[in-house]
Design brief:
Length: about 170
């Protein structure tokens, strides 16, 4: 699968097969995150990969009781360990972690797996479940597994409604 095909097929998967993700497949997906770019090459991301069913159920509760979080065979808790702010005023953590997570999502799609970004969660509940220190910011959760149902194409804005050249013309 080429990159644009993976991009077009990626969607927010919320129904997973009751099937574990093989260790080799999981490592390939995590390698995609490791290779992601980061500001100043800080590589400031850290990932807690949760495969234990009991822990996933506890994360489900901490993720606003979204059932598919507990159903997915893998939940990745993505953290940042640096509080550096770029000259433009943006914190590097959320940006670097997001780039790495999208690498995960695209690699997973290319291998026939599904993912879902989880922004509805309570970091103060996730932290003690996994022993994440307060020095690490919990940026995002992502579910991962084999999709139980195929998803069709998603509606997207036309290119000319989101892109202009040389000047703001919206």
């Amino acid at each position: 699968m080429d990159i644009i095909e993976a991009i077009s097929k990626r969607y927010s998967c919320r129904v997973y097969q009751d099937r574990p993700v093989e260790a080799e497949t999981l490592n390939t997906i995590l390698e995609a995150a490791r290779l992601a770019p980061s500001a100043k090459n800080l590589q400031d991301w850290r990932f807690v990969v949760v495969t234990d069913a009991a822990l996933r159920q506890r994360l489900c509760v901490a993720a606003n009781s979204q059932p598919f979080v507990g159903q997915a065979p893998v939940v990745i808790v993505a953290c940042c360990v640096v509080d550096h702010v770029m000259r433009c005023g943006q914190a590097v953590g959320p940006i670097d972690v997001s780039i790495a997570l999208e690498h995960i999502a695209l690699q997973a799609t290319g291998l026939g797996l599904g993912t879902c970004w989880i922004g509805s969660f309570f970091p103060d509940q996730v932290r003690p479940i996994l022993g994440i220190p307060t020095s690490a910011a919990i940026i995002e959760l992502m579910t991962l597994g084999y999709p139980a149902i195929a998803q069709g194409p998603r509606k997207r804005e036309a290119l000319d409604s989101i892109v202009c050249y040389n000047q703001w013309k919206f």
